[in-house]
Amino acid sequence: MVAGVFRMEFREKTRDEVGSVANLSLRLASVISPTSVEKPVVQDAIEKADLLIEAMGWIRQFREKITVIKLGGSVMEDADSLRHLLVDIVFMETVGMRPIVVHGGGAAITRAMAEAKIESQFIHGRRYTDDATLKIVERVLAGEINENIAARIEELGGRAMPLNFAGEQNNNVLFGERLTLSEKDGTPIDLGHVGRVTRVDRDTVENLCYAGQVPVIPSMCETETGERLNVNADTAATAVAQALGAEKLVFLSDVNGVRRDKNDPDSLIHSLTAKDAGRLIGEGAIEAGMIPKVEACLETLQKGVRKIHIIDGRIRHSLMLEIYTNQGIGTEIVSS
User: Fold this and answer.
1) CB 304, CB 245: distance < 8 Å
2) Which of 187, 236, 247, 274 is deepest in the core (most CB within 10 A)?
3) What single string gives the DSSP state of each residue in 242-297?
């Protein structure tokens, strides 16, 4: 009973508190100075063991907790970055976390449209999706990319399930409706087959997670009448995290996180509360393209997701460095 209570309390500790536990282990280990028999090779192995001890606290805290990871942008265009991220995801599942992948594929869709001699059109940052574009989005995003990510996870030793409607079997788990936007004067904006997620098949996704498989979800949804719709990958990942009550939602970005000075990578803010984030937006420290992402994070925190991370997905093993080290490499946003 005592042990059970301890485990429950430990899982609720903050980054600083868990870090102090790991640091204590490291200090205790360093009491015994290296002896003459500890050759450089042995010392290197000891340092690796120290890193595992540091990770231990985080592994225990997040065991059996769901983490939604949004893949997209330049990360998916860099073969090495994508491979390292998928290795991290396999590691997460191996040590007992429940990772879920939600992905986009804008660059690949644009290339496929160019090959088909179809010009890409964007309205308020969203791809206009007519009938011809929808066919390409479905083939590339829900078919080729989705199946490839799942296959790559399997090749790296993990287990994954592609959840799409591109093949003979419909495994789709995202349902929604057409997205309606208006100009400032109230004029409706036609985006074509573009939608927003209103329902997630939670049972299917959870069952896969607890069976040790990584659900891989493309950013498309179906209406209740069977119409397929193109969905923004950030909002799709947010919908999945909210529906599953995820412990973490991780956005992989092209920058290292939220900065006090947008032009200075060294001004990275490692931990940020919702209140502080609102203040920084008001002060202009958070601006331009980071504002909608941070605002989406704040809305997601209000709907039950415990922590949101914004990290540079181009850094080798960025997921492991953010989740399993004391300081992390990106920005962690929490409600309070």
Assistant:
1) yes
2) 236
3) HHHT-SEEEEEESSSS-BSSTT-GGGB-SEEEHHHHHHHHHHTSS-TTHHHHHHHH
